[in-house]
Amino acid sequence: VVASGRTMVHIPFVIGAVAIFHSVPTARFAGELDLDGCLLARIFTRNITTWDHPDILAANPSLDVPAGQNIEVVHRTLGSSSTSGVTEYLSDVCPEFWTLDTGSTIDWPADTNAAQGSGGMSTFIASNEYAIGYIDAGHGHDLGLSEISLRNKNGNFLTSKEADIGAAATEALAAGILPADATASFADVNLYDQAGDKTWPITLMSYMYLNQNLTEYDQAGQLLMAFVGYVLSEEGQAMAASEFSFVPVPVEIQEYNNATIMSMALAADTTPYIFESAETTQVGVGAGEFVISGKRRSYGEVERDLLQKQIDAVVSRIGAVESSATVTTLHGSGTTNPSKLFWKAMLQFEDRALLPLHLTYRAVGSSTGQKEFLGADNGNMSFTDFGAGDIPITSERYSQFTSAGRTVVHVPFVLGAIGIFHSVPASNLSGQPLDLDSCLLARIFDGDITTWDHEDIKAKNPSLDVPADQPIIIVHRNLGSSSTAGTTQYLEKSCPSEWTRGSGSTIEWPAGAQPQEGSGGVSSYLKATPYAISYLDSGHGHSENLAEISLQNADGNFLTTKQADISKAGAEALKLNIIPSDPTADWSEVNLYDLPGSDTWPITLFSYFYVNQDLRSLNQTGQVLKAMIQYILDEPSLVEEFRFAAVPKEIYDYNMQTLGDLMLAPDTTPMMFENETMVGTGAGSFVISEKRRSYLDVEHDQMMDTMMMLQMQVNELTTQVNTLNSGNQEGTATTATCSCDDYDDSQLRAVAGASMALAIVALIIALVCACKMVTSGGSSGKKDGANIQHQPSISEHSMGDRKEGMQKV
What we know:
Elements lengths: L7 E15 L11 E2 L1 H8 L9 H6 L12 E5 L4 H13 L19 E3 L1 H11 L3 E6 H6 L3 E2 L1 E3 L5 E2 L8 H8 L28 E9 L1 E2 L4 H14 L1 H11 L2 E2 L2 H12 L2 E2 L7 E3 L14 E3 L5 H26 L3 E7 L4 H14 L4 E7 L2 H9 L11 E4 L5 H9 L4 E15 L12 E2 L1 H9 L8 H6 L12 E5 L4 H13 L19 E3 L1 H11 L3 E6 H6 L3 E2 L1 E3 L5 E2 L8 H8 L28 E9 L7 H15 L1 H6 L3 E2 L2 H12 L11 E3 L12 E3 L5 H32 L7 E3 L8 H13 L1 H12 L2 E3 L23 H10 L1
Parallel strand pairs: 2-7, 3-4, 3-5, 10-12, 13-14, 15-16, 15-17, 19-24, 20-21, 20-22, 28-29
Antiparallel strand pairs: 1-5, 1-6, 1-9, 1-11, 7-8, 17-26, 18-22, 18-23, 18-26, 18-27, 24-25, 30-31
């Protein structure tokens, strides 16, 4: 320019910041990620390639990333001022580590990632975890990207949002970095790493390049100067900030620009432009030829403003809807045993909450619940908000939690019992229970005792009468399960001399043992196959009306799970210090097997919540999780509905201390419960109210009431049938007949009517009437022979009799 005889000036009109953005998951560190210029230079040159490098960890003690986690560096592909700004900054502040070139395009290391434009950069960072790159600050903030906290010249770590971006220009002017003469060369001017507590280290000014002498421009020179004046005006600077995310130049730079403008030459016979604002009418003057008037607009501008107002209104409404309809989610996975309990409690929370809640639980088994809560395949970040299991977290996984910097607590919320069920026909038992101790059970499941008439079984059960050499069929779960773990651990503890197969959720069973999938498969096999034996959660076995082994407990008493006090094992475990005093400790050795107590059940298990002690990253979800645990602990009737035992008071008090020590996000609100009407308070956003229900919930209660009434009627009518049957037994010797003559008409009509009302009772009546047992030698038969006499069946009686019977019923 100088060589051509022209004199030019620089007019700095806005200031921008280049910021460093990243995608390290926020759960991996506390606060912000701190880097200085040299660490950043080493990352971009690939001298440092992993996030767990000792120098990065030294600057960020809270950073917890997977070992060897690669840093994904992303850069612009084509020439850009942001590339120029970052490379020149790094060259200035850390030349010993910045080994690459500077400028708008450079040769980046081969294992870095290229992206086109700010949009490409931001998309890459947002789509790829553990990435880092540079973007103009406004663009990165608009997209909600996480920003590196960069150390400035004064040694302070800050983000571009926290910094005073304009301060770099003021400092540069004071330090003489900007030439006193605006016509001088600006080639060496940069605002990188300027002094100041809040100065951002990668700051750039945008310039207008102008000829100082505009005399040859004629009136266009005046128009150019009017344009420059507008951009530098309060309105122009505000527009640059609000619409284009730039920072206005500070007062000192405005004064510098004013001096530059005053030095510029304009043609003598031209007229300066003046401005009439949209707010202030200048009568007469505003109509002048050289007036830029806010009152004078194009229809396109009006239409654009109208469209913008409509867009703003829609955005506002969307924001309001999103604000009011933000859904708080809670997701867990684990043991199948209490899954129905979880699903009901979660449904009640969703139905009774004012704000939208979405709670889910995947019934996948205790071991899977632990694996997903640990998240070893996810960089030790949990896939779920909580886990659940019928076994404590294993020692190996507990070590993985602690190595990952996570503190986990166990919250035992129910107790369950594993019962031993069998299918020996009742006719073989002479009305007596089938008694076994732990060593007999161990020998059966180990394959040492193979027949039901084994002398050691007969010694415990003298009234047992089974066919000779009747084989014992062992049935077991085919996949890993907590019931397998509980049974085998009990046998290993209570009879190690006889149990040789180890313990765990899966073991090697004897040849010939029958594998079945799930509790349903085991119970179906027992119901279909006589002389089998297996283990099941007691609630499931009882619901299927299976026969249960009477097992000897630690105090020497034989009892079934129905006769035992299931919760007593929990209190005994706490008393004996089997349960750690610290809920964050390793629970892997905790078990409730074979504990003392006259009515203590020997194979008892806790079901646990697995919960991070620090729930701050879950925000309001942490409050919902805590409330759900509290709700389950406070509702023993809900627990018992699903055939579990509520925790005893000693364990409840222990859990209250655990819940009280959970760390929750400070800007969240605790959930509360409304049982009795709380006027005003019960209408609050964070209240789980029994007064707020869904119609589905009401309909369910009505159906349950109806079922209970029907069950009572069935029980009453069954009693009547049994009474009628027992009243017609004579003598001791019996013979089968098909007679209904011994019932009088009123009895028969009543029974027939009840049969038509309830199908199940009809079946009972039909069996009684079809196969009634009468004494031989009575009025129905002859003394010297078992003659079967045909008598009129119920169906052969008149329709009138049946109608009359129904009317009476």
